[in-house]
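Q: Given only this backbone (343 positions), what sequence would you predict?
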């Protein structure tokens, strides 16, 4: 077998067969029958003797690299009536570790029992490593005999070049000279310039006066979000549920800007109740129907088809537009000067 080597072979010769000499005479026939009857048990006991057992040990393959697997095969050829007890899987031995349970295979049927036990290991260090195995016990007719398997060895080679000792290292370089004070001043100046540039950039981003940027208008933000969702086309892409949820989220953020008493995180019944108390310009049942449908799709995974999702998204946009119209009308009413009273 290529890639395998026999590390041990135990072969015990067969037991001697009983021999009896029979003479000639008138009683030779009867005497031969008696002798034959006495000889048969002797031959039968010799054929079922543990000393007829042949044990071989193989390492497959004989050379591996670090991290590769290899097997140790213990093959036994014994009488048919023999009871074989193979050694257990050995524990971790040095740099050789077992990785699989013991595997048993039987050979072709014949006059003798042919059985093989395979032990699988992995090696983690280079060199030659022994793998100690316990004895194999063969029991025939109540008599047990142990066969020592020894310690098969595995050779683990390295993947590094065969010889790297010919490379002579260079001499150590002298330490770098310490920098002078001029170098330290240059580093400090560079750090100061960098900090000044960052501070100027920060001031420019915020403005010379330090005024904060204007908050974007709620209607402009909501309109831009609706336009982005329309360009995305979730309903046409088969995401009808996400289409409804996204439009209602835009509506809730807009309502939170216009009516702070209705945060976007409120559930549908509480949000409807808050809107009813806040003098909402749109009929509250209309908003309640939209928020209830959104809760069914968002939390209960209710099915919604493309046409229904498109209608619900359009409804959210229409409610937002109507609230904005009412809001702008209220602002214009506040800007008008009060009429003088007639006396």
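A: Predicted residues:
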């Amino acid at each position: 077998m290529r890639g395998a080597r026999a590390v041990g072979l135990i072969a015990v010769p067969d037991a001697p067969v009983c021999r009896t000499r029979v003479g000639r005479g008138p009683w030779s026939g009867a005497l031969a029958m008696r002798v034959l009857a006495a000889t048969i048990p002797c031959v039968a006991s010799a054929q079922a003797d543990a000393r007829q057992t042949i044990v071989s040990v193989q390492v497959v393959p004989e050379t591996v690299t670090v991290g590769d697997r290899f097997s140790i095969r213990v093959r036994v050829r014994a009488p048919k009536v023999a009871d074989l007890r193979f050694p257990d899987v050995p524990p971790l031995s040095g740099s050789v570790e077992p990785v699989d349970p013991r595997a048993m295979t039987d050979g072709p049927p014949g006059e003798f029992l042919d059985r093989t036990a395979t032990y699988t290991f992995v090696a983690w260090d280079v060199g030659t490593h022994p793998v100690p195995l316990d004895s194999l016990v063969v029991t025939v007719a109540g008599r047990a005999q142990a066969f020592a398997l020894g310690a098969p060895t595995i050779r683990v080679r390295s993947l590094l070049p065969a010889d790297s000792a010919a490379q002579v290292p260079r001499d150590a370089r002298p330490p770098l000279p310490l920098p002078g004070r001029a170098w330290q001043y240059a580093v400090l100046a560079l750090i100061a310039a960098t900090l000044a540039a960052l501070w100027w950039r920060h001031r420019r981003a915020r403005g010379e006066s330090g005024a904060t940027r204007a908050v974007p208008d709620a209607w402009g933000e909501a309109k831009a979000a609706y336009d982005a969702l329309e360009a995305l086309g979730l309903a046409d892409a088969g995401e009808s549920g996400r289409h409804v949820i996204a439009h209602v989220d835009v509506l809730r953020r807009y309502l939170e800007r216009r009516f702070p008493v209705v945060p976007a995180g409120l559930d549908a019944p509480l949000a409807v109740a808050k809107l009813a108390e806040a003098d909402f310009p749109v009929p509250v049942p209309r908003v309640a129907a939209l928020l209830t449908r959104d809760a069914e799709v968002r939390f209960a995974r209710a099915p919604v088809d493309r046409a229904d999702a498109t209608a619900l998204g359009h409804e959210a946009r229409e409610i937002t537009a109507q609230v904005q119209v009412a809001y702008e009308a209220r602002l214009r009413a506040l800007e008008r000067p009060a009429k003088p009273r007639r006396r």
